[in-house]
């Protein structure tokens, strides 16, 4: 069955690392996953003060949410990542965890934004996802 998502990187744009510039979605049904944070299933913060540990929990939560909708990371076409006090070191740590879940690509369209705070001061990262269901 042909893919319902075309991930493109036009030569007229800079070469991306770990994301795609364009996601053309032909699926009729989509799931929008609310921002996931580093809470475990009991609502406790995981990895307080540790961006890599929190990113791991966030991606595990995203995987669980996607599975509940009947999809997975191969159908994700957009990610938005919010990182408190974003730095190069934090971005590298988040990308390392991200690659465990996204593999060798193709990668979804993606944005990473530095923020001053999230809803809980112990949280360092929040990620939203949009995936195709068809």
Describe, in plain words, how this protein is organized in 3D.
- The structure is a single chain.
- The protein has 134 residues and is of the alpha+beta class.
- It has a single domain (5-132), classed as 60s Ribosomal Protein L30, Chain: A (2-Layer Sandwich).
- Helices cover 25% and strands 29% of the residues.
- It is built from two helices and six strands.
- It has a four-stranded mixed sheet. Strands 1-2 form a two-stranded antiparallel sheet.
- Strand 4, helix 2 and strand 5 (109-115) form a beta-alpha-beta unit.
- Helix 1 runs parallel beside helix 2.
Give a nutshell description of this structure:
This protein is globular. α1 packs parallel to α2.
Report the average pLDDT across residues: 93
Fraction of helical residues:
10-25%
Give, in order, the helices and strands: EEEHEHEE
**C-alpha termini separation:** 11 Å
- The name of the CATH architecture is 2-Layer Sandwich
In the CATH scheme, the class would be Alpha Beta
The total beta strand count reads 6
Per CATH, the superfamily is RutC-like
Alpha plus pi helix count: 2
Rg computed from alpha carbons, rounded to a whole number of angstroms:
15 Å
Largest sheet: 4 strands, mixed
Fraction of residues in β-strands: 25-35%
């Amino acid at each position: 069955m042909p893919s319902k998502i075309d991930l493109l990187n036009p030569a007229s744009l800079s070469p991306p690392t770990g994301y795609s510039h364009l996601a053309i979605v032909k699926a009729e049904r989509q799931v929008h996953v609310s921002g996931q944070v580093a809470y475990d299933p009991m609502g406790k913060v995981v990895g307080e003060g540790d961006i890599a540990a929190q990113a791991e929990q966030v991606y595990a939560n995203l995987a669980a949410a996607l599975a509940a909708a009947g999809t997975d990371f191969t159908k994700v076409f957009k990610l938005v990542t919010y990182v408190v006090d974003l730095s190069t070191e934090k971005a590298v740590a988040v990308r390392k965890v991200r690659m465990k879940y996204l593999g060798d690509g193709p990668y979804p369209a993606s944005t990473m934004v530095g923020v001053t705070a999230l809803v809980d001061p112990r949280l360092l990262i929040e990620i939203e996802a949009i995936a195709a269901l068809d």
